[in-house]
Amino acid sequence: MALVSGFTFIAPAAASAEETTGASYAYAEFLSGDVLGTDLGNVAGLGQVVASNNGNQARQVDRDPLTVDALGATVLNQPGGLQLPLLDVVDAGVISQYAEADKNGESFASTGAIQDDGAIGVGNTSSGRAGDLTVDLDSLLSNEFASVLTDLKLELDAVSARADGNMTSASGDYTLADATLSFSSPAISKLTSKVTTALNGVDGQLISLGGDNGALGNSIDGILDPVLGVVGSSADVKVVVDADLQKAVSTLLDGKYGDGAVSFNLETGAVVVDLETLLGGELNNLAPNTELLTDAVVNQILNGITETVADLADDIVERVELSLRDARVEVSAKLNLLTAQKSTQKTVCHDIQVPIIGDILNGEVLGGGSSNGGLVGGLLGGLTGGLTDGVTQGVTQGIIGYTTDTVCEVVGSVLPDLRSTVDVSIIGNVDDLIDGTAISAKANISLLGGTVTTGLNVKTLIGSLGKSLDSSLFSNGGVVTSLVKSLNTGLVNPAVTGLLGDSSVATVLHDLVSIKVNVQEQLTSTGTVKGDMFSETAVRVAVGSGDVATLNVARAVVGPNVQTVVDPNCTENCGTGGTGGDPDGDPDPCVGVCLVGGSDFLDLPTYALGGQLAYTGAGVATLIALIVALLAAGAYFARQGYLRTHPKSEL
Prior knowledge:
The two termini are 39 Å apart. The protein contains twelve helices and 31 strands. Strands 2, 3, 4, 20, 26, 27 and 28 form a seven-stranded antiparallel β-sheet that branches. Helices cover 25% and strands 33% of the residues.
């Protein structure tokens, strides 16, 4: 991990007699490094303490030039005219710095949560906790990750470092009370909204299923329609499944989840990682150059969140299924129909009297004025003879009697309309209806005024309804399966993709951010004070493999005669002689944290030395490559683990 660009390589200075005459050097700085191209060593107020002794001077002490208030007034000028207040990146609490160099070659440096004499401790502070620091990493990331990661911060509590040196060796120690990594991810936010959307889909399906053309309505129509075929109509069927699904899952949606080490809010998307708890309750006494954000740690954080989201989806589905099984179902089927009858015709016959017509006055043509037609004829003839000689006499007909005759006619008749009624009511819960029982059930049907017998059994209706409920709600492709797919699409998949996919939170934490503690390095100075140095840095934060920013938090340097590095509780040389012991054959050697410098050293800026320091240390390139590989594997296994219990959604 590099602090500056444009490195040169130099050979380490060999220890000489002149370098071991008692000269000593100590240097401490709480905050150093590079932020977006600005070297923090040039920031006013971020001073260092330096103590240097040529071996003939009294003990040299320097303490506390740091004025943290200067952070708020410091602006980092960026390319393109962009200005970034340093306070937007770092926010430090009360801190102290101390450097001491004696003429016997012993030196001591410390910074952070230290006391007036340089001893590590919280110290007396007027407000806040000494050595606290908040680093806003979000402002150092590009907008490329804004859709998956925001508000990335690292909070360090009571951080400090110290380095001790003598004529030939040095040791370092650090303290870190707590380290908290926090960020927000839209991928795991708006839980209630996402779940509500999925449940609204279920409610809509239930309404559709219960309609006259829905599966549940059709289960009733399928029994009634053949019976009602005689009247050529269908009943108005309604099926209502009354389930309060929001209430069923409400207790699951409090938004706050986690196990103490990793806590997160699925409403806001905020994630808080207590690195101390996650790493077993101990941030101190870690091995030199320990990376906190290893692939295992990052995967534990992110897999834990995605697994919780998947488990939550399972719990929601379980609650919804239980609610549906206990849901009240009300079925009604109504019909009230009048059917007109066809008119009829019939022949009606009755007897009538028919009069008989006959002659009632009879006569004949008379000639010569005489006639033998009888009295009437004679009279008439006599009266008219003189006037109408030769005229025919008149004849009159009339009713002479009656007879009986039969007369028939066709008569039409209109019949009254015939009423048909259906009154079906079934009430019960889903599980009981599936089992064939109901709280109440009736099926009253009268067709064509009761002239048609139906023979319908209400149990037939219950059986058909129960079968449809089971299939529509709980079978593959039913309502519950649809809910699983909806939660998968709207809740789980975004979490998996946003946390573990390409350009995700995992990408940032694996590839772009490094947090190392107990960073121990051997240095070679070519500046004003020449010689071999040792540096102890409590925490080193790098963004973008150090290209974007590198922050050294609590850094102490001693020298210039450091040939070996020993455990801070051990004064013996950490060599390799004997059988695992030191060169002098000590039977109980100190071999715990020895760091042996290589042949080449990278240059580092150190303004108190008037020159440069060089350091060795493990790079992160190999680690990054490993993390990238494991990221792909981690995302794959997390995804597959969920899909084993959830239907695959089509995205």
